[in-house]
Amino acid sequence: MGTVEHSPAITQALAEVGPRLKRLRTERGVTLSALAEATGVSKSTLSRLESGQRRPSLELLLPIAQAHQVPLDELVGAPEVGDPRVRLKPQHVHGSTVLPLTRQPGPLQAFKMVIPVSRSTPDPCTHEGYEWLYVLAGRLRLVLADHDLVLGAGEAAEFDTRLPHWFGSTGDGPVEVLSLFGRQGERMHVRAKPRSRPAGSPDR
Fold this sequence. Notes:
Layout: H1 8-27, H2 32-39, H3 43-51, H4 58-68, H5 72-76, E1 91-93, E2 96-100, E3 108-115, E4 130-137, E5 140-144, E6 147-151, E7 156-160, E8 165-169, E9 175-182, E10 193-194
Antiparallel strand pairs: 1-2, 2-3, 3-9, 4-7, 4-9, 5-6, 5-8, 6-10
Protein backbone atom coordinates (compact mmCIF):
# COMPACT_ATOMS: atom_id res chain seq x y z
CA MET A 1 0.00 0.00 0.00
CA GLY A 2 1.45 3.40 -1.00
CA THR A 3 2.31 6.12 1.49
CA VAL A 4 -0.17 8.98 1.70
CA GLU A 5 1.49 12.31 0.99
CA HIS A 6 0.18 15.29 2.93
CA SER A 7 0.40 18.98 2.14
CA PRO A 8 3.06 20.95 4.06
CA ALA A 9 0.36 22.52 6.25
CA ILE A 10 -1.07 19.14 7.27
CA THR A 11 2.40 17.68 7.84
CA GLN A 12 3.25 20.62 10.10
CA ALA A 13 -0.05 20.27 11.99
CA LEU A 14 0.60 16.56 12.61
CA ALA A 15 4.12 17.28 13.85
CA GLU A 16 2.73 19.77 16.39
CA VAL A 17 0.17 17.36 17.89
CA GLY A 18 2.65 15.66 20.24
CA PRO A 19 4.03 18.85 21.85
CA ARG A 20 0.49 20.22 22.08
CA LEU A 21 -0.72 17.10 23.89
CA LYS A 22 2.13 17.25 26.37
CA ARG A 23 1.69 20.98 26.99
CA LEU A 24 -2.05 20.57 27.60
CA ARG A 25 -1.50 17.68 30.00
CA THR A 26 1.28 19.36 32.00
CA GLU A 27 -0.60 22.67 32.22
CA ARG A 28 -3.47 20.79 33.84
CA GLY A 29 -1.18 18.88 36.19
CA VAL A 30 -2.26 15.48 34.85
CA THR A 31 0.20 12.57 34.93
CA LEU A 32 0.56 10.06 32.10
CA SER A 33 -0.74 7.36 34.45
CA ALA A 34 -3.86 9.38 35.30
CA LEU A 35 -4.53 10.16 31.64
CA ALA A 36 -4.05 6.51 30.70
CA GLU A 37 -6.61 5.50 33.32
CA ALA A 38 -9.09 8.15 32.11
CA THR A 39 -8.76 7.33 28.41
CA GLY A 40 -8.04 3.61 28.31
CA VAL A 41 -4.96 4.38 26.19
CA SER A 42 -1.79 2.82 27.53
CA LYS A 43 0.81 4.99 29.22
CA SER A 44 3.48 3.95 26.71
CA THR A 45 1.24 4.89 23.76
CA LEU A 46 0.51 8.29 25.29
CA SER A 47 4.21 8.87 25.84
CA ARG A 48 5.00 7.96 22.23
CA LEU A 49 2.23 10.28 21.02
CA GLU A 50 3.68 13.19 22.96
CA SER A 51 7.22 12.51 21.73
CA GLY A 52 6.09 12.22 18.11
CA GLN A 53 7.04 8.53 17.84
CA ARG A 54 3.38 7.51 17.37
CA ARG A 55 1.22 8.99 14.60
CA PRO A 56 -1.97 10.56 16.01
CA SER A 57 -5.28 8.98 15.01
CA LEU A 58 -8.94 9.63 15.81
CA GLU A 59 -9.08 6.48 17.95
CA LEU A 60 -6.36 7.94 20.18
CA LEU A 61 -7.23 11.65 20.06
CA LEU A 62 -10.97 11.39 20.70
CA PRO A 63 -10.69 9.88 24.22
CA ILE A 64 -7.88 12.36 25.07
CA ALA A 65 -10.06 15.29 23.96
CA GLN A 66 -12.93 13.91 26.03
CA ALA A 67 -10.72 13.47 29.10
CA HIS A 68 -9.44 17.06 28.85
CA GLN A 69 -12.93 18.32 27.87
CA VAL A 70 -11.63 20.28 24.88
CA PRO A 71 -12.66 20.28 21.19
CA LEU A 72 -10.72 17.91 18.97
CA ASP A 73 -9.55 20.91 16.91
CA GLU A 74 -7.66 22.17 19.97
CA LEU A 75 -5.59 18.99 20.05
CA VAL A 76 -4.96 18.86 16.33
CA GLY A 77 -4.55 22.54 15.54
CA ALA A 78 -6.04 21.80 12.13
CA PRO A 79 -5.13 24.24 9.36
CA GLU A 80 -7.89 26.62 8.34
CA VAL A 81 -9.97 25.50 5.40
CA GLY A 82 -10.36 27.66 2.34
CA ASP A 83 -14.11 28.25 2.72
CA PRO A 84 -14.91 30.16 5.94
CA ARG A 85 -18.66 30.31 5.32
CA VAL A 86 -21.01 28.96 7.98
CA ARG A 87 -23.41 26.39 6.55
CA LEU A 88 -26.72 27.44 8.04
CA LYS A 89 -29.37 24.80 8.72
CA PRO A 90 -32.75 26.48 9.28
CA GLN A 91 -35.00 25.14 12.00
CA HIS A 92 -38.72 25.75 12.38
CA VAL A 93 -39.78 26.69 15.91
CA HIS A 94 -43.37 27.71 16.72
CA GLY A 95 -43.89 28.78 13.13
CA SER A 96 -40.74 30.89 12.97
CA THR A 97 -37.63 30.10 10.91
CA VAL A 98 -34.57 30.02 13.17
CA LEU A 99 -31.00 29.92 11.84
CA PRO A 100 -28.38 29.14 14.53
CA LEU A 101 -25.30 31.31 13.92
CA THR A 102 -23.17 29.81 16.70
CA ARG A 103 -21.39 26.58 15.77
CA GLN A 104 -19.85 25.78 19.16
CA PRO A 105 -21.76 25.07 22.39
CA GLY A 106 -21.32 27.72 25.05
CA PRO A 107 -23.06 30.13 27.40
CA LEU A 108 -23.87 32.60 24.60
CA GLN A 109 -25.76 31.56 21.46
CA ALA A 110 -26.63 33.65 18.39
CA PHE A 111 -29.61 33.21 16.08
CA LYS A 112 -31.26 34.87 13.12
CA MET A 113 -35.04 34.58 13.28
CA VAL A 114 -37.67 35.19 10.63
CA ILE A 115 -41.03 35.62 12.40
CA PRO A 116 -44.16 35.26 10.27
CA VAL A 117 -47.03 37.76 10.33
CA SER A 118 -49.24 35.03 11.81
CA ARG A 119 -47.26 35.08 15.07
CA SER A 120 -48.99 38.10 16.51
CA THR A 121 -50.89 36.83 19.58
CA PRO A 122 -48.89 37.29 22.81
CA ASP A 123 -48.24 34.16 24.84
CA PRO A 124 -45.69 35.21 27.51
CA CYS A 125 -43.33 32.69 29.09
CA THR A 126 -40.43 32.72 31.57
CA HIS A 127 -37.13 30.83 31.79
CA GLU A 128 -33.57 31.33 33.00
CA GLY A 129 -31.38 33.55 30.86
CA TYR A 130 -30.81 36.94 29.31
CA GLU A 131 -31.68 37.91 25.75
CA TRP A 132 -30.59 40.60 23.29
CA LEU A 133 -32.74 41.36 20.22
CA TYR A 134 -31.87 43.48 17.18
CA VAL A 135 -34.48 44.10 14.48
CA LEU A 136 -33.11 43.72 10.96
CA ALA A 137 -36.36 44.32 9.06
CA GLY A 138 -40.05 44.76 9.81
CA ARG A 139 -41.70 45.73 13.09
CA LEU A 140 -41.29 43.58 16.20
CA ARG A 141 -43.78 43.59 19.04
CA LEU A 142 -42.21 42.83 22.44
CA VAL A 143 -44.40 42.15 25.45
CA LEU A 144 -42.25 42.18 28.58
CA ALA A 145 -43.87 42.09 32.02
CA ASP A 146 -45.98 45.31 32.06
CA HIS A 147 -44.37 46.73 28.91
CA ASP A 148 -45.87 46.47 25.43
CA LEU A 149 -43.28 47.74 22.93
CA VAL A 150 -42.77 48.02 19.19
CA LEU A 151 -39.26 47.97 17.73
CA GLY A 152 -38.47 49.00 14.18
CA ALA A 153 -35.48 48.13 12.00
CA GLY A 154 -32.24 49.18 13.69
CA GLU A 155 -33.69 49.14 17.22
CA ALA A 156 -32.57 46.77 19.95
CA ALA A 157 -33.80 45.45 23.28
CA GLU A 158 -32.23 43.41 26.07
CA PHE A 159 -34.00 41.80 28.99
CA ASP A 160 -33.96 39.19 31.74
CA THR A 161 -35.92 36.18 30.48
CA ARG A 162 -37.07 35.37 34.00
CA LEU A 163 -39.62 38.13 33.39
CA PRO A 164 -42.76 37.12 31.49
CA HIS A 165 -41.98 37.88 27.85
CA TRP A 166 -43.12 37.30 24.27
CA PHE A 167 -42.11 38.76 20.93
CA GLY A 168 -43.57 38.46 17.47
CA SER A 169 -45.03 40.38 14.57
CA THR A 170 -47.21 43.45 15.01
CA GLY A 171 -49.51 41.91 12.41
CA ASP A 172 -48.29 44.27 9.69
CA GLY A 173 -45.82 41.79 8.16
CA PRO A 174 -42.98 39.36 8.93
CA VAL A 175 -40.00 40.39 11.07
CA GLU A 176 -36.30 39.54 10.79
CA VAL A 177 -34.42 39.58 14.09
CA LEU A 178 -30.94 38.83 15.39
CA SER A 179 -31.01 37.21 18.83
CA LEU A 180 -28.22 36.66 21.35
CA PHE A 181 -29.19 34.43 24.24
CA GLY A 182 -27.15 34.00 27.41
CA ARG A 183 -27.94 31.54 30.15
CA GLN A 184 -27.24 33.89 33.05
CA GLY A 185 -30.13 36.16 34.04
CA GLU A 186 -29.34 39.83 34.65
CA ARG A 187 -31.16 43.05 35.38
CA MET A 188 -33.46 44.11 32.54
CA HIS A 189 -32.53 47.04 30.35
CA VAL A 190 -34.63 47.89 27.30
CA ARG A 191 -33.82 50.38 24.55
CA ALA A 192 -36.97 50.81 22.54
CA LYS A 193 -39.93 53.10 22.07
CA PRO A 194 -43.21 52.16 23.79
CA ARG A 195 -46.22 51.30 21.68
CA SER A 196 -48.44 54.25 20.96
CA ARG A 197 -51.62 54.14 23.04
CA PRO A 198 -54.96 55.82 22.51
CA ALA A 199 -55.29 59.13 24.32
CA GLY A 200 -56.57 58.71 27.84
CA SER A 201 -55.88 54.98 28.06
CA PRO A 202 -54.31 53.88 31.37
CA ASP A 203 -50.69 52.76 31.47
CA ARG A 204 -50.42 49.10 32.39
